[in-house]
Design brief:
124 residues, alpha/beta, Rossmann fold, six-stranded mixed sheet, 4 helices
Length: 124
């Protein structure tokens, strides 16, 4: 199943145990209004999930989007088992380290040209 909102596309993989998220532009509060219920449904179904977060032409968050992201991270501290971040800039790579205190998930960063490696790792 695939869900598209303004700046996010979500695809369920492995019957929803893995969520592949593609982010572009700046994430806004409205992006999370669609994203959160989908992720909540998968967590309810599977317990812990794995997330592959792919950033292409990604410019971060608006103030409202950042607040929603912080709330999401706090409420799902233990619900994400693995988080693969895929991007092409230093600040996106830095996000992998920044995220660690906000989750119990194993986190790993991959450059864009290593997307297939990220997919292998998230399944591993």
């Amino acid at each position: 199943m695939e869900t598209q909102v303004k700046n996010l596309t979500l695809a369920e993989i492995d019957e929803g145990k893995i969520v592949e998220v593609h982010a572009t532009g700046k994430l806004e509060k409205s992006d999370y209004e669609s994203f959160d219920p989908e992720v909540e449904r998968l967590i309810e179904k599977h317990g812990k999930i794995r997330v592959l977060f792919v950033m292409r032409d990604f410019h971060g968050w608006t103030t409202g989007g950042l607040w929603e992201d912080i709330k999401f991270d706090a409420s799902h501290f233990k619900d994400i088992e693995r988080l693969a971040l895929v991007g092409d800039s230093k600040w996106e790579e830095w996000m992998a380290s920044f995220c660690k205190p906000f989750t119990t998930a194993k986190i790993k960063y991959f450059p864009t040209d290593k997307l297939s490696d990220a997919r292998d790792w998230i399944r591993g």
